[in-house]
Amino acid sequence: MTPRGRAGRLLAWALAVVALAFVAWVVPVRDRCWDPRAPASTRVSVTRNQDGCTLHLRSGEARIGAPACAELRCEPGVASTLTHARTGVLAALLALYALGLLVWAARWRALLTLAGVDISVLQVWRVSTEAQAGGILLPGGIGGDALRIASVIGRPTRAGEPRAPAAIVVASVLLDRAIGLSVLALVAAALGFAWGGLRDGALAFALLAIPVAVALGLWVLRRAPQGRTSGLARWLTGGRFGRIVGPMLEYVRDARAPAAIARAAGLSLVVAVTQFAVIRGLVFAVGAQPSAEKWVYVGGAMVFIVAAVPALPGGWGTADAAWIFFLGLAGLPAGAALGVGLLYRLFWYISAIVGAALYVARPRASIVAASHAPAESPPA
What we know:
- It contains 15 helices and 5 strands.
- By secondary structure, the protein is an alpha+beta fold.
- The protein has 2 domains: 30-75, no CATH class; 87-372, no CATH class.
- Strand 3 and strand 4 (60-65) form a beta hairpin.
- Helix 4 packs across helix 7 and helix 5 crosses helix 14 (334-361).
- It is elongated.
């Protein structure tokens, strides 16, 4: 690893540690309560039971009866938030989350079909679900994307090629991410404006700039002169930037690309709506009442963006701090905000467990054959 790479990793880990320290400092594990007739600085950790409350004072524990306990004003802790979450609602939201994953697989298949990769929706769903397990163990969403690419490269194409070209598969994943992020930001901005109006909508406008930038970038890629005769073409195909954008050029110039991108965008709209419905449902499931509805959606989009920062595996720390901050703007207590984030992470882990089980259930011969297949490197 180069010194610059080591410095980047150290910075990412430092950011994650700071975020975890922020979460530990802000979020109470137990309920924190205080007498409304006394200063809020008198708040203490409280454990509730049927007979009353146990106050965890610095001088020791003290018990009070149910009438006195009912008079306390409390900030919910993450433990009580998760304990009292509505299980029936959580089960329905988990099913909705699973539906979103299936639609996400259909979106990527629409882009793989453009590349001529012969694969069904269920096969794409299986590959994507297996990649979820890798995303837990590796930083950000990069690890999961790498596993998706590796799983599809070895598949035949409709053109008769024995293996799908790595450059085209990489391009499909990059475009899948770009379309997903664009539509997610667009829906979040629209919901933000619908619930909060244009006033104080700076972050919503910033989110709106993402789909505009992606659309403009796709237009440039399709219209850019071919070859290396112009300055723009040399900039697009040369250097480090060219190694990233190069695979996209051939891919998005295909005559069928606009139709495939439109189908992927339509499916992505369904994915975004299901994601925000799950988040809003989790807020309801933990019994929270947001005072600023728009931040549930604008903040949720920001959490997804922050979670992609390659810090700790699975986005631990940075994503949790983002949930607390942005849902705090929606009026949720820190314990409830972290509870929503942890429950959403639980859904992700459940899908990852399914993916890991599917991977283990694969015939061992096919896994060994795939591991010994000649590697085709992404474009340099």
